[in-house]
Structures are given as structure tokens and as C-alpha cells.
């Protein structure tokens, strides 16, 4: 049985990727949450190799970083990436682009599943990131026929964009119709709903995440339990 270490479900976008991939593809695992604190990095460093989560343990093997976890799982589970070679090449490239890019989206719209925020403006760098996401999603949906980004089946690529889907809803980001439909579809799958329900039940509030999420906007709704 795998063991996956993650952070708070409300905030932890990187944790969501690995968790969703494993849950949606029904890989058996136990999870443990290390809640964020003011001193997370020091705390995490004592526990996991890179000082960051997600962190996967498989017996005596340890893997950290969401992309490394996806690739590790792909060695033993064929369903992680699309079956078709060209869909797989595209999906890996786009997941890597997501993994290493989109700095304005990350900074100006940090993930917080349980709140709704009205942005005061959409800055040029943020618009550039949003436009590129629309472009990539339209390419995937048109080329492979949906309802997922690389075709009929959920793959790691959808897991990599899952935090973006929560951000689109939290910050009401402008998306093309077909991309909004994809976002709605991903929000509706069982494992995304399970993550969201758990996020809404969390009572941890980490001050830095709470202030970061309203740096570029105004809080209009908080659906989390208090
Ligand atoms: N590139 C890494 C990023 C991991 C990361 O930044 N994780 C955050 C949680 S979302 C973390 O562990 N933060 C610890 C801290 O803030 O001290 C991945 O893909 O896993």
C-alpha cells in the first residue's frame, strides 16, 4: 500500500495533483496531512526528504515532487498517461509546461478551494497565463475529443490542471465556453468532490495563505466551516 503525505486540502495545489491522480485511478493509498504552520519548511524538512509535499512512500522507496510521483506511478500503472503515443507526448509536454510555468496565476490566484474572491483587476501577466491555458485546453479538447484534456479518459494531465480548475472557480477567471465546460466536468468527478468536501471541513487557517489569497482581490464568500 502506498502512503501519500500531503498538506491542507484547501490550499495545497501540489498535493492535489498527486492525490487526485491516485484516487481517480483507484490506486490504493493511505494519506497523512501535514498542516501548514508559520514554520512549515522547517517542520517539513524534519519529516520528508525535500522539505515539501506531496511525498510518496512505497515500501522503502520514497518519491517527492508531483511530477516525479506521476512518473514513478506510470512505471507500474499504464493508465497514468494516455495510451496513444502522440497523445502521451502532448500530455507530458503540457503537464511539464504547467509544472514549471504560469507564475502570475500561482502568485495572484493561490489555490483556496473554499472561498470566492473578486479580483480587482486582471493584470497583463495573469491574462497571458489565462490565455495560454485556454489555448492549451482548446487544443487538447479539439484534438482528442474530450471530455478530458487528452481524450476519453482521465490522465495525469487532468490531475496537473485540477488546481487551475479550483482557481478558475475561486477567482471567476474568464475562460472560453468549451474550457468552462471542461472545468465544470472536472469539478464534478467523484475524487474532485471528495477533495473539495474535505477542504471545506478543514478548520486550519494559515495566516500567510489567508493573506496571499486576497492580495489581488476582495473576499466575497467563505464556504469553509468555522
Ligand atoms: N514542485 C513541487 C512543489 C511542492 C510544494 O511546493 N509543496 C508545498 C505544498 S503545496 C509545500 O510542501 N510547502 C511547504 C512549505 O511551504 O513550507 C511538487 O510538484 O511537488
TrEMBL record:
Range of residues in the leader sequence: none
The keyword Phosphoprotein appears for this protein: no
Matching PROSITE patterns: GST_NTER
GO MF annotation, one: glutathione transferase activity
Coiled coil: none
Alphabetical UniProt keywords: Transferase
InterPro entries: Glutathione-S-Trfase_C_sf, Glutathione_S-Trfase, Glutathione_S-Trfase_N, Thioredoxin-like_sf
Transmembrane segments: none
GO-annotated biological processes: glutathione metabolic process; L-phenylalanine catabolic process
Gene3D superfamilies according to UniProt: 1.20.1050.10, Glutaredoxin
Domain GST N-terminal: 1-81
Pfam families hit by this protein: GST_C_2, GST_N_2
The keyword Zinc-finger is assigned to this record: no
PANTHER family membership: MALEYLACETOACETATE ISOMERASE
Protein name per Swiss-Prot or TrEMBL: Glutathione S-transferase
Organism this protein belongs to: SAR86 cluster bacterium
Lineage: Bacteria, Pseudomonadati, Pseudomonadota, Gammaproteobacteria, SAR86 cluster
Amino acid at each position: 500500500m502506498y502512503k501519500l503525505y500531503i498538506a491542507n486540502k484547501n490550499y495545497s495545489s501540489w498535493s492535489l495533483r498527486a492525490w487526485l491522480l491516485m484516487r481517480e485511478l483507484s490506486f490504493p493509498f493511505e494519506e497523512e496531512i501535514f498542516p501548514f504552520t508559520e514554520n512549515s519548511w522547517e517542520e517539513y524538512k524534519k519529516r520528508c526528504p525535500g522539505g515539501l509535499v506531496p511525498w510518496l512512500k512505497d515500501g522503502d522507496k520514497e518519491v517527492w515532487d508531483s511530477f516525479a510521483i506521476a512518473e514513478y506511478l506510470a512505471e507500474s500503472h499504464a493508465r497514468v498517461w494516455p495510451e496513444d503515443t502522440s497523445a502521451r507526448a502532448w500530455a507530458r509536454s503540457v503537464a511539464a509546461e504547467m509544472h514549471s510555468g504560469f507564475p502570475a496565476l500561482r502568485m495572484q490566484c493561490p489555490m483556496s478551494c473554499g472561498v470566492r474572491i473578486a479580483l480587482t483587476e486582471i493584470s497583463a501577466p495573469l491574462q497571458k497565463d489565462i490565455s495560454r491555458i485556454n489555448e492549451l485546453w482548446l487544443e487538447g479538447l479539439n484534438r482528442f475529443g474530450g471530455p478530458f484534456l487528452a481524450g476519453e479518459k482521465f490522465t495525469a494531465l487532468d490531475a496537473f490542471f485540477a488546481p487551475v480548475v479550483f482557481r478558475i472557480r475561486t477567482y471567476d477567471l474568464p475562460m472560453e465556453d468549451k474550457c468552462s465546460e471542461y472545468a465544470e466536468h472536472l469539478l464534478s468527478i467523484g475524487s474532485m468532490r471528495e477533495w473539495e468536501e474535505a477542504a471545506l471541513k478543514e478548520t486550519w487557517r494559515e495566516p500567510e495563505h489567508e493573506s496571499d489569497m486576497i492580495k489581488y482581490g476582495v473576499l466575497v464568500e467563505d464556504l469553509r466551516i468555522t
